[in-house]
Amino acid sequence: MFKRLSVVVVFAVALYLVLPGSTFAQPFGYEGTQVCGMCHKSEKAGQQLKIWQESKHAQAFKTLQTPEADKIAADKGIKGKAAEAKECLKCHVSGNDVDKALLGAKFKMEDGVQCETCHGPGSAYKSMAVMKNPEEAKKKGLVALDDKAKLCSQCHNAESPTHKEFKVDEMWAKIAHKVPKG
User: Fold this and answer.
1) What percent of the chain has pLDDT over 70?
2) How many folded domains does the chain comprise?
3) Is residue 20 part of a domain?
4) Which secondary structure element, helix H or strand E, spans residue 168, and what is its range?
5) How wide is the angle at C-alpha 179 spanned by C-alphas 177 and 182, nearest 5°?
6) Residue 159 neighbours by CB under 8 Å, 6+ apart
7) 43 is in which domain, residue-wise?
């Protein structure tokens, strides 16, 4: 019995040493707009938080809390409230379908389509030191927004019951929030 246990332990240790560290790494967690906004609200940062706050993305969850949304959901065969339906939440809130242990203390689903919906969960890249190093930030989960059409079409598509023609460049201009040069 001891010999068999020893073999199992040795095998487990060998496997741990051979496999890359990322195999055992925790997935990145969601922090929420309060955390992101701490560094992205100033003039120097392009008032990114304010741009988001004034966008329809910030109101996305609230739109599900209306009688109209409940009617649309019912017409699609969804039982219950739109604000509780996974079919609706998948596009109207960030972090809805992740392990709740990955949601930071300041994360609020009610904030709708948040920073991390497009930029990726920020738990590992949220620090100033990491954000000042773009390559390191990407390694730690920051999503490069190279393909806007692909990103946006994950929600803005014909599967949505209220879908209208979606002009990526025109809509992107409404939510653009670059950091000013200099």
Assistant:
1) 85
2) 1
3) no
4) helix 168-175
5) 150
6) none
7) 26-175
What are 80's two structure tokens?
Answer: 């219950």
- Domain membership flag for residue 2: no
**Distinct helix (H) and strand (E) counts, the chain:** 11, 0
In a domain, 118, yes or no: yes
Is the separation of the CB atoms in 93 and 100 below 8 Å? no
**pLDDT confidence bin for 165, thresholds 50/70/90:** very high
Q: What is the pLDDT of residues 135-148, one digit of tens each?
A: 999 999 999 888 99
d(CA 120, CA 116): 5
- CATH assignment at residue 57: 1.10.1130.10
Question: In 54-111, which ranges are continuous DSSP H helix?
Answer: 60-63, 67-75, 86-92
Query: Per-residue pLDDT for 17 more than 70?
Result: no
Mean pLDDT score, 88-104: 94
3-class state of residue 95 by DSSP: coil
Residue 182 confidence (pLDDT): 65
Q: What is the dihedral of CA 143, 147, 152, 153, to 10 degrees?
A: -130
Q: Is residue 78 part of a domain?
A: yes
Angstrom CA distances, 61 to 2, 32, 109, 177, 179, stand at 57, 14, 8, 21, 27
